[in-house]
Design goal:
- By secondary structure, this protein is mainly α.
- The chain has helices at about 15-20, 30-50, 65-80, 85-100, 115-125, 130-140, 145-150, 160-175, 185-205, 230-235, 245-260, 285-300, 305-320, 330-345, 350-365, 385-395.
- It has 16 helices and no strands.
- Helix 11 (about 245-260) crosses helix 12 (about 285-300), helix 14 packs antiparallel against helix 15 and helix 15 packs antiparallel against helix 16.
- The two termini are about 30 Å apart.
- The model has no long low-confidence stretch (mean pLDDT about 95).
């Protein structure tokens, strides 16, 4: 593996209670000292972020780098701390986002108009503004026909494709109640994604190895953002595919195909046919593939999936403190969610310990000589994402990678 990571300066978990006692107790509850440190760093970084956003692009509505992402952070702060001030901030930013929608065919939660509409629906719902909530959901559902139509030319991945629209529907149901958007809407999109994957698999003549195949800009990406791992993660969610039998027949062998791409290090290539073992990011590599593996383990019960997921944790521990910085998409905060996902699955304190030390790294924001991202205060590239992670760590069993995890 190459040197895009900085050397991990921390001692790994040694199994002794002494190694974790300053961080959390035997039940996984953070100590008041460590929680206090997180809280004061959250406040400090929020102030820096607010100041920095004064010079952010006024026309970027997206969740990825724009106003909807900041609104999502404030919604998360409100969900965690219940302070009405945070809900007002979420409203302020999502209103800004709705004023500059892309109005293009970008239909995803992260990079299109679906994200701002979904976040706005939840903010209005929290404020008990029923009419505006309904209006946002109706506008969101206006994209549904196009997305569910296999001939629409849309890709299938998370950032710009069908799964990115699907996540918007999931997000509404997570926040407003499971049946706010009927399951059949989600199943229709899953159906379009399965058909698309089957036809591409036939086109590339790989159907015996992988009954499903996907590409984005002529590349068959592997990771969570543009690739197979992100797509399969959703197709394995209970009920998302109408017939369970199709998940076993089409998705499982396709997941096994991704598993065979694993490097000896435990990392995964960015694209099929790319043999460079370089990237340890949520968007490309082990930190994004881990979610597919854990979901496969839950769906099919095969122990090897969990073993591969645990190996992803080792890769992230050794190579996950990135020179690219502290962000979610390709930074230390996004990588730290690997440990939180493993912790929720196993309850092994090792993973929570590692997440806490990555948080310690993130709390020394800007002190490691990392690169400054293009949008330094945004949710997916910049400081807002790091704050989101530090907030999530306060309740580790409830943590979910934003705009992605179900």
């Amino acid at each position: 593996m190459d040197t895009r990571a900085l050397k991990n300066p921390y001692h790994d978990y040694d199994g002794s209670p002494a190694s974790t006692q300053a961080l959390f107790d035997s039940g996984g509850k953070l100590t008041s000292e460590f929680a206090q440190r997180l809280n004061s760093k959250i406040s400090e970084l929020l102030a820096v972020m607010e100041n920095g956003l004064k010079s952010a692009d006024p026309r970027d509505c997206t969740s990825y780098t724009g106003w909807a992402g900041i609104a999502l952070l404030y919604l998360h702060l409100h969900n965690t701390f219940k302070d009405p001030f945070f809900l007002q901030k979420a409203l302020e930013y999502v209103s800004r986002s709705l004023k500059c929608l892309t109005r293009r065919h970008d239909v995803t939660f992260l990079c299109g108009d679906a994200g701002p509409l979904a976040v706005a629906a939840v903010v209005y719902h929290r404020l008990q503004r029923v009419q505006e909530t309904d209006e946002c959901i109706n506008r969101l559902l206006q994209f549904h026909q196009t997305v569910a139509n296999g001939a629409s030319g849309l890709p299938d991945e998370l950032l710009y494709g069908r799964m990115g629209y699907l996540y918007s529907l999931i997000f509404i149901n997570q926040q407003l109640g499971q049946d706010r958007i009927p399951l059949q809407y989600i199943q229709q999109i899953s159906e379009a994604v399965l058909s698309s994957g089957e036809s591409l698999s036939r086109k590339f003549r790989v159907q015996n190895d992988s009954p499903l195949m996907y590409e984005w800009y002529q590349e068959q990406y592997v990771g969570a953002a543009h690739g197979l791992a992100g797509i399969y993660y959703y197709l394995m969610q209970p009920g998302f595919v109408h017939m369970e039998e199709r998940v076993h027949r089409l998705v499982k062998p396709s997941v096994d195909y991704v598993c065979r791409l694993k490097f000896p290090t435990g990392n995964y290539p960015p694209c099929i046919g790319d043999d460079r073992d370089l990237l340890v990011h949520w968007c490309h590599g082990a930190p994004g593939v881990v979610y597919m593996l854990l979901q496969a383990y839950r769906a099919f019960g095969v122990p090897q999936y969990l073993l591969d997921a645990l190996q992803c944790g080792e890769v992230v521990w050794h190579c996950g403190l990135l020179k690219k910085g502290y962000g979610l998409c390709h930074g230390a905060a996004g990588n730290a969610y690997t440990f939180l996902a493993l912790y929720r699955q196993t309850q092994d304190p090792k993973h929570l310990y590692r997440a806490c030390l990555f948080a310690d790294w993130c709390m020394n924001y800007g002190k490691h000589g990392c690169r400054v991202p293009d949008t330094p205060f945004s949710l997916f590239e910049g400081m807002a994402g790091t704050i989101y992670f530090l907030v999530d760590l306060l309740q580790p069993m409830h943590a979910r990678f934003p705009a992605f995890e179900v």
